[in-house]
Amino acid sequence: MRTRFKVLLIALFLILGFAGGICLAIVSADKVDSYLSGRKLSLGDRYLNEQEYEKAILAYQSAIEIDPRQVEAYIGMADAYKGMKNPEMAAELLKLGWEAVPDERLKTRIIRVYTDLYKQYMDEGEYEKAHDILTDAYEMTRDSEIRKLLDELETRQEQSQAQQELLEQLLKAAEASDTLKLVTLLRTTEYSEFIAGIDRVFYYPQKNGEAIAIYDNGCLYYGGLSEGSREGRAIWIKASSGKANIYEGLWQKDKPEGQGMVSHCTYTAGGTLSTVSTTSGTFRAGLENGNMTMLVYDQGRTYTYYYRAITGILQPMENSARYVDTDGSYIVAVSIEDSTMQCIDQGDLIYGVYGFASGDIQSQIQ
């Protein structure tokens, strides 16, 4: 019995000794890996400080191959790629590091690198890439500032899509010379929000050829453009909730020049069209110049006026001296349909195309 017990005891000691040896070997191996990885990390840091980026990357790669959880190696390699002006690879390395070991040090660096890359994409107009990089950063870090940037970008993208749709509608209506549709679009909230973000002028789809130009005062031009200069036959519109001004005619050297027609529309408080007047003839630098014809549509009736203007100044009607009032006002024209309807002026306003003149002849109808 004693002999059997001794044998068992010896066997137990042998087993424990063997297991201890294995544990010791494992611990020793871990220490060796940690040591070797640390050596490669130090080498990478040295190369990084010396701006030997390719050598630094190789050293950091070796450190990671030895110890895939070596956080500082991922960070160092990302810094090396940034030094090589390759922020995309820097971001990718940090993502790989996070997948291997989601460490707080990596989180801090991810927020910084991914935010910088987001700003770069935004400056380059690469909005989809900017959205993707923020999405990746937030999924990894759940950082509140990243979430805020992502929300702002998504809101901007929604607005951008709405603005793109508006521009396409404007271009389609302009190409069809559908001034009624253009006026409707210019009176929308979407258009007001769009012009609020314009810095002087916005061209669509290009600055040359047949295109739209939208100005920060709300005016819209559609026609020929040569490096932003308006030329040829075109449409020019300014619309608000109360009225709309439209010019359809020729342009030269960035101004209305030649045959054209100006239309003035007024609307009720509810948005219903109230009156319309059209003035056709010759314009010089945006001003009425020569024999003009005005048609006024009001409450189902039409009134026609013929008169003469010189560089925007309305001239007294022939043989109308006896109609001059004490305040200096004079008759410019009398409606051929109803002699009681007279166009009266004082010569103190300049008439022509909106933005180039000060007067609105429709408002002078008595």
UniProtKB/TrEMBL annotation:
Alphabetical keyword list: Coiled coil, TPR repeat
TPR repeats: 37-70
Coiled coil: 150-177
Keyword Coiled coil listed: yes
PROSITE patterns hit by this protein: TPR (PS50005)
Family annotation (InterPro entries): TPR-like_helical_dom_sf, TPR_rpt
Pfam families tied to this protein: TPR_11 (PF13414)
This protein's name: Tetratricopeptide repeat protein
Species of the source: Lacrimispora sp. BS-2
